[in-house]
Design a protein that fits this description.
single chain; 11 strands; 193 residues; alpha/beta; 3 helices; six-stranded mixed sheet; Purple Acid Phosphatase, chain A, domain 2
Length: 193
């Protein structure tokens, strides 16, 4: 059972996480395209995460409220997110953990310019419902797939990202079989000081 942490103390902890030395492991759950469904399997897979990123097509405010019970959430608006509950959601957002900058956007094709030349080390997007992990020009691209209704023959999935010691380890988690199906490791090369 998660313990209650007062909001002001939680914000201080989040600030420490964002500014923490890179030796501290930060566990980030990445979910997208829930379309109004928060599966119990997703909640189980995300338990223990320090932060959750939702890459849009949330569906309704209750999905965000359910995720907030697990960990603090940063979310962006997807093409199906409309109505008063979604008005405050940005189209894209940036988060930074242990010096690793993450760009969160629903449709990566919505970026102006070339996403491969961004000043972020990780780009997280959704929209396609196809889970994928790849790197382009040293930037890790994560699409967690869809954790909402099954579409076509695509898996129901999410992603997990761990950042520690300048390394990013991303894995895709198939919710129908309850385990990781692939892993991708990227080491950040820092210039000598």
């Amino acid at each position: 059972m998660p313990r209650y942490i007062p909001r002001n103390r939680l914000l201080r902890q989040m600030t420490r996480l964002a500014c923490a030395p890179s030796t501290i492991a930060i566990h980030i759950g990445i979910i997208a395209d829930t379309h109004g469904i928060l599966r119990p399997e997703a909640c189980t897979a995300l338990s223990g995460c320090d932060r959750i990123l939702h890459a849009g097509d949330i569906g309704n405010a209750s999905v965000l409220a359910g995720l907030e019970r697990i960990a603090p959430v940063l979310a962006v608006r997807g093409n199906v997110d409309s109505g008063p509950w979604a008005e405050s959601l940005p189209d894209k957002a940036t988060a930074e953990f242990s010096g690793i900058r993450i760009l969160l956007i629903h449709n990566v094709h919505g970026l102006f310019g070339n996403p491969r030349t961004t000043d972020h080390q990780v780009v997280v997007s959704g929209h396609t419902h196809r889970p994928s992990l790849s790197t382009h020009n040293g930037i890790l691209h994560v699409n967690p797939g869809s954790a909402g209704p099954r579409r076509f023959q695509l898996p129901v999935s999410l992603a997990l990202l761990t950042i520690a010691n300048g390394e990013q380890v991303a894995s895709l988690h198939d919710l129908t079989i309850g385990r990781s199906t692939s892993e991708f490791r990227v080491e950040q090369h820092r210039p000598p000081s």
